[in-house]
Amino acid sequence: MGVAVSHWKLANAVASRGHLGVVSGTALDLVMTRRLQMGDPDGSMRRAFAAFPNAEIAARFWDRYYVEGGKAPNKPFKSKPIYTTTPSQTLIEMTVLANFAEVFLAKEGHDGPVGINLLEKVQLPTVPSLFGAMLAGVDYVLMGAGIPRQIPAILDHLAALEPVELKLDVAGAEASEEFVTKFNPAAIPNLGVTSLKRPQFLAIISSNALATTLVRKCTPPVDGFVIEGSRAGGHNAPPRGGIHLDEVGEPIYGPRDEPDLAAIKELGKPFWLAGSWGAPGRLHEALDHGAEGIQVGTAFAFCNESGMEPGLRKRVIQQVLAGATTVKTDVLASPTGFPFKVVSVEGTLSESRIADERERICDLGYLRQLYRKADGTVGYRCPGEPVEDFVEKGGQEEETVGRKCICNALTTTIGIGQTRKGYHEPAIVTAGNDVVNIAQFLPEGADSYSVDDVLARLLEPAKQAAGLAH
Questions:
Q1: How far is the C-alpha of 222 from the C-alpha of 196, rounded, in Å?
Q2: Average pLDDT in the 159-188 region?
Q3: 466 φ, ψ (degrees, to nearest 5)
C-alpha cells in the first residue's frame, strides 16, 4: 500500500488479532528520517531505536534527524542520500535501522506473524532492507512488481550472515555484462547475533506461468504466492499481449490475464488471493479455490490504524458516501511503466491541473531506471524528472508524457510530504477498485472505521477465524 500506508501500527493491529500483518518496506529510510524530524510525538521511534542492537548507529541517526517538538510546517525536511549501485555506509546503516524499526514496532506486544512487502522494481535498497527486517525477526517477505527469482537464495545467505549480491536490471546492458549491488552483513558490526531467522518468501504474481517458473526454476523455490488481480491497488501487472486502451484510457484486461488457480494449486505451494477479494463472503470462496486465504489491502488502507493522513482518508470516505469516487488504472502515471491505480481526489495528482503545475524534480530517486552509459558505467534516469535531463540521458521525450512523481506524492499521502520555498508536494491516493465499497465497514452513524470493523465484516460471513493477510 504505497509508502507507509500499511505502516507498523496497521500491521501490529492485524497481527495482534492473529492474522498476517504486513508493513510496506518502500522508502522506509526516508520515512524514518522524516518521522524523526516531525518530533516522534508518540515515542515509537525512540522505542525502536533503543531496541536496535548497535546503539552507536541508532544514536548517530537520532542526533542527526530528530527535532524536538517537530520541525515548523513551512520548513523543508532535511535531504538524505540517494541510492546508487554502490551506496554509502551511512545509507546502508540508515536502511537497516529503518527496516528494523518498522518491523520491531509491528511485532511489539504480541506473537502474531508480521511480514514486509518490497517492490522488485526498487532494487537498490532491497538487500539492506531485508537484512534490517530480519534483524527484527520478520516472519514473511512479500515482493511483486517484477520477477523476484533472486530473493529466496538471498534470504538464505542473509540468515547465515553471509555476503550477497543482487543482479541489477540495467537498460541497454550488453548480453555479456552483469551489474550487481553488494551487501555484507559484517559491515553492520556489534549486532550480537551469529545467525538470523530465515523468513518465508511469498512472490506477488498475476499468472500461473510465473508461478511455475518461481517453483521449478528458482533455487531455492519460493515458499508461496499472493495472486494479485488487475483490480488490486498500486502497481498492476501489464496485460498479457501488450497494452491496449479502452474508451477512457484504461488498459484492457482479458481472459489471458486470469490466473489458472487449479494449475497453481498443483504446484503444492500455499497461496492467497488479492484484488477485490477483501469483501464479505470472498474468504470462503478463496478457500474453496484451495487458497490459504485472502490479502486485504484497500479496506485496511482507509481504516483508523492506517498511515494515510487522517484528513485525506476522511475526504475519500466522504466521497465514497456521496457516490463520487472513481479509480483509474493510469498507464502513464508511474515511472516504472507498470499501470498504477489512482483514486480521483480534488487537490491531488489525480487532477491534470495539479500535475501540470508541479515543477519536475527527482530528488528521492526510488523509481529511477538504471541504464548503461556509453562508457559502460551505470546511469540513473526517471521519466518523471525534467524532460531535458531525461532526454540527455538517452531517454525518449515521449516517455515523459503524463509521468508523475510517485515518490514525492506518496510521502504527502502519509503526511510527511516535502515543502520547497512555500510549495507543498501534492498527494496521490492509490487503491483498488473496491474503494467504492469501503462504506460497508462503517459502523452505523460513524464516518470512520477500524481494523476490527473490517475483520468483523470479512470473517463473519465465512465463519472462519483464519486466512487473512493485508
A1: 18
A2: 96
A3: -140, 170
247 exposed, middle or buried (CB, 10 Å; 0-12, 13-18, 19+)?
A: exposed
Grid coordinates 488479492 are at which residue?
A: 274
Q: Which residue is listed with cell 541508532?
A: 58
**Residue 333: pLDDT over 90:** no
What span, in angstroms and rounded, lies between the C-alpha atoms of 161 and 166?
Answer: 15
pTM: 0.94
Task: Record the cell numbers describing residue 167, joined without a space.
Answer: 543482479
Q: Return phi, psi of residue 251, to 5°.
A: -65, 145
Measured CA to CA, the distance from residue 370 to residue 155 in angstroms comes to 24
Which pLDDT band, with edges at 50, 70 and 90, does 399 fall under? very high
- The pLDDT, as a whole number, for residue 228 is 87
Helix pair angle (28-37, 55-65), 10° resolution: 60
Is residue 45 within 8 A of residue 36, CB to CB? The reply is: yes
d(CA 362, CA 353): 19
Q: What CA–CA distance (Å, rounded) separates 321 from 342? A: 18
Given this model, what pLDDT does residue 465 score? 45
Reply yes or no on whether the pLDDT at 468 is more than 80.
no
pLDDT tens track for 126-146: 999 999 999 999 999 999 877
Residue 287 confidence class, pLDDT cut points 50, 70, 90: very high
Calculate the average pLDDT of the chain: 93
Contact between 134 and 151 under an 8 Å Cβ cutoff? The reply is no
pLDDT at 470: 60
In sequence order, what are the residues at sequence separation of 6 or more whose Cβ sits closer than 8 angstroms to the Cβ of residue 270? Answer: 223, 224, 225, 292
Pair type for strands 21-24 and 114-119: parallel
